[in-house]
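Re: that chain you flagged

S.,

Sorry for the slow reply, it's been a week of failed gels. I finally had a moment to sit down with the sequence you sent. For the record, here it is as I used it:
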Amino acid sequence: MPLTLVLTVGLSGCAGWGGGPAGGGPDTINVLMVNNPQMVDLQQLTAEHFTAETGITVNYTVLPENDVRDKISQEFSSQAGQYDVATLSNFEIPIYARSEWIAPLDEYVEADTEFDQDDVLGPLTASLSGDDGRLYGEPFYGESSFLMYRADVLEAAGIEMPANPTWQEVADIAAEVDGVEPGMAGICLRGQPGWGQVFAPLTTVVNTFGGTWFTEDWEPQVDSEEFRTAVQFYVDLVREHGEVGAPQAGFTECLNNVVQGNAAMWYDATSAAGSLEAEDSPVRGLMGYAPAPVVETDSSGWLYAWSWSIQQASAKKDAAWEFISWASSSEYEELVGEELGWSRVPAGKRASTYENPDYLAEASAFAEPTLQAIQTADPNDAGVQPRPAPGIQFIGIPEFPDLATQVSQDVSSAIAGQMTVDDALQRGQQVAEDVAERYRERESG
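Prediction finished late last night. Pasting the structure tokens below so you have them in one place:
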């Protein structure tokens, strides 16, 4: 799951913090969105640019990730039409499309010749489409996952990172560089409970080890040999060569560990590279970037995109599309680069971004590995066997967040040494069986 920071910011007069929409006339739309840094930048630029050019005022309701997910679910399931646009990810969009909570965008895309849908990276377009093949979301930014490592530390140790590392090669390197500098762990991996914490990277490890949460026929596989082997490998690696406090470590903790020189490697979101290469980062220019490690699959990086969707009940779909077209455009990226700096561009969604010399001058160290990771991510073929629903670091069903969160509690306990992996996954199998039984009943009925 992507980096989401809880920020306290001063908002412009057109924005609301929490609460409900501020209302407005026919030239006003209400947008419900997550409060990450890229969205905060968007707020700052809206009135002076989008509203000035179109005459459309935007009322923002901005909430932290968990809160915004709950509120969007409540608002869109009721179809009250109070919010015209919301930030959804490629996890929710196919599910919401199936429920007819969001509007298809194909006609708007076809009519908007300047938007250039073909420039949007193919895996993102596919992941934001519904079962009916129609498009239901446009990405604001996208990400995959890759291996970040201290190139200088490996070089000093006489170690060369393979061009396409396997997980065993990564584990061997972690053992060699563990403690090579005072306080430096061999690797940092998320261990914090949560479907979007430990199971974001760990599900990709399960995939490439040959495991899956469910077979195509809804047989749960949480206690299968492949799933168990992957989790045992991950738990052993982080226990033996991982960071201090691993059971409580999430994205932010690993980012801090790498920046502070307390970890030689880190497998996580491609979006993290911008922070590692920021002007004030102590590790700027010292990092290397390699594809997500594999075992049985050719690639294993995840796919995630915070994206825009229009509520089906919105009475202002045309204005809503004008906003989406602007916020997801290459022109908006240029605006951010010129006014706020190229390191703050919401990248990872358009091929043209990776041909922009201004962006590449800022992101040369990680731009190509990021693009390659996104382009090789396939949510419809994430492992070695067919799955009942799309997804790489998740399974695209409404029950997955609760299922994976429950199982993650025990996996985190295994990382802490309070439970065996076998016991953790036996308990997880029971939870998965409850989910699978409901789907088998639906399909047989």
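What I noticed first: Residues 193 and 430 are 18 Å apart (CA to CA).

Talk soon,
D.
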